[in-house]
Design goal:
By secondary structure, the chain is of the alpha+beta class. It is built from 6 helices and 15 strands. The chain starts with 8 loop residues before the first helix and ends in a 24-residue tail after the last strand.
Length: 342
């Protein structure tokens, strides 16, 4: 049997054998639920994705940002008829709920329901749909991004795709707390927390608060696919539009690797070029059997570099598999910018 996904060799070594797939992982997420005829219109103005055109059953990845385009949360928006649910993939769910409540006006035909928590089960691999279908769980209608399904004695949500992005095929099941996870998962291999984190890093999926914070914008974090530039006015739209129009994206997310063990790396997160100039900052770290890896945000002048220095140690750089940047923001050979901060 061939490998289920085109992972690089160093990652394949850290994951279950190909014959063990599909596999699963689980984590707790916040769910926000809005009902009313203006639900999608309201979210259209509060997040970066085009939601006015989203039909019922559609799933679209989006971001909530500040007026200065700093990310507050990474979201999956589940469109419904006169309603919408938001899965907070990364970010402060309670703070986002408070923000929506603050921006709602009495004239809006929107009701913001209490926030709830759910267990997000990601079943990973090309055979994930067949595995769930064998348990009587199927995506309906065909081609939908999400739907409600019966699971034991309660309703759950079935989502097409995984929270790792398009690079890792599979399905997700959102099980509301405190309901238990499906018993059939006991017969499916489960990824360890470390293995799930390695997948996240390899795909370049931003996490909170390491990448989703007020130091970066969605374009720098490889989230261009979650931003619609032609949808009209929304919070942060002017800043994001200027960044693309005037080629203002000054840094980008990168995957880094080192043969040095995680515990032996310098604690300082500042990356330097060969000349000692500040070249970026490490945002995430994880251990590998063969060393260490993580994510970093690298300044434009060094985007073409294959290595940088973390303290006295050299680290290699590559593009995360799932990162998407605006067109025209390619690595350049221009001189380093004069600023000394990110």
């Amino acid at each position: 049997m061939t490998a289920p996904l085109p992972f690089p060799h160093w990652l394949s070594q850290a994951l279950p054998e190909p014959g063990a797939w599909p596999v699963w992982t689980v984590r707790s997420v916040h769910l926000l639920h809005l009902t009313g005829a203006d639900s999608l219109r309201f979210l259209h103005g509060q997040t970066t994705q085009d939601l006015n055109s989203a039909p019922p059953g559609c799933l679209r990845r989006s971001c909530a940002v500040t007026a200065t385009a700093r990310p507050v949360a990474l979201l999956d928006v589940l469109a419904d008829k006169h309603a919408a649910r938001l899965v907070v993939l990364a970010g402060d769910g309670p703070a986002l709920h408070q923000r929506f409540d603050r921006y709602l006006f009495p004239a809006d035909q929107v009701t913001l329901l209490p926030m709830v928590q759910a267990q997000q089960v990601s079943v990973l691999g090309e055979a994930a749909p067949a595995l769930l279908a064998a348990e009587g769980i199927t995506m309906a209608p065909p081609g939908a991004g999400w739907c409600s399904v019966a699971e034991s004695n309660h309703q759950a949500l079935l989502l097409r795709g995984t929270d790792f992005g398009d690079g890792v095929p599979g399905l997700r099941l959102l099980v509301p707390e405190p309901h238990p996870l499906p018993p059939w998962l006991d017969h499916v291999p489960r990824l360890t927390r470390v293995q799930a984190e390695l997948l996240r890093l390899q795909q370049g999926t931003p996490a909170w608060p390491s990448e989703i914070n007020d130091a970066f914008n969605p374009f720098e974090l490889g989230l261009a696919g979650a931003v619609a530039l032609n949808k009209g006015c929304y919070l942060g739209q002017e800043v994001l539009a200027r960044l693309v129009t005037y080629d203002g994206v000054k840094q980008q997310l990168r995957l880094w690797r080192s043969c040095i063990a995680l515990g032996s790396l310098p604690e300082d997160n500042v990356l330097q070029g060969e000349d000692g100039a500040r070249a970026g900052v490490v945002t995430s770290r994880s251990a590998l059997d063969t060393g260490s890896m993580g994510l970093a945000v690298v300044r434009r002048a060094w985007l073409g570099a294959s290595t940088l220095r973390l303290g006295q140690e050299a680290i290699s750089l590559s593009l995360p598999a799932g990162a998407e940047f605006p067109a025209g923001t390619n690595p350049s050979n221009e001189p380093p910018p004069l600023e000394t901060h990110l």
